[in-house]
Amino acid sequence: QVQLVESGGGLVQAGGSLRLSCAVSGHTFAIYAMGWFRQAPGKEREFVARISRSAGNTYYVDSVKGRFTISRDNGKNTLYLQMNSARPEDTAVYYCAASRGLGQLVFTYQYDYWGQGTQVTVSE
Predict the structure, then answer these.
(1) Is 6 helix (H, G, I), strand (E, B) or coil?
(2) Mean pLDDT throughout 18-45?
(3) How far is CA 107 from CA 33, 49, 120, 123, in A?
(4) CA distance 31 to 25
(5) How confident is the model at residue 84 (pLDDT cuts 50, 70, 90)?
């Protein structure tokens, strides 16, 4: 059974930075493409970023391009999301997810395993 555990969430002022981590255990990390999603109160869970198995390809939702960076360390079985220039609209619970699929992987149903989420709050 694959387990994903997020950490690094918290409160940050607008314009500030935060780094989320996702520790993966229970299976070979490198066989999964990985993604970050977020869910704000009263809204659907939305795609944020995705990284390929080798970390050679990344993809972002337009609203975070140039501000967020997804990365992974296959030796440490860990996924990261560096959040810079944070905005109040980035406030949400952030989830990491693992996929055995191929392609852009922007939909929740394309992911096989999920973490429990970590709260990110960006104040004005």
Answers:
(1) strand
(2) 95
(3) 13, 11, 21, 28
(4) 12
(5) very high
User: Is 59 within 8 Å of 49 (Cβ atoms)?
Assistant: yes
Q: Which two tokens stand for residue 16?
A: 């500030």
Instruction: Name the E strands within 1-124.
Output: 3-7, 10-13, 18-25, 33-39, 46-51, 58-60, 68-73, 78-83, 92-99, 113-114, 118-123
Q: Report the alpha-carbon distance of residue 68 to residue 74 in Å, rounded.
A: 20
Question: How large a percentage of the chain has pLDDT more than 70?
Answer: 100
Residue 74 tokens, joined:
């296959």
Strands (E), 46-117: 46-51, 58-60, 68-73, 78-83, 92-99, 113-114
Strands 68-73 and 92-99 turn out to be: unpaired
Residue 27 has pLDDT above 90, yes or no: no
| Selection from 41, 16, 36, 50 nearest residue 94 by Cα | 36
Per-residue confidence band for 2, with pLDDT thresholds at 50, 70 and 90: very high
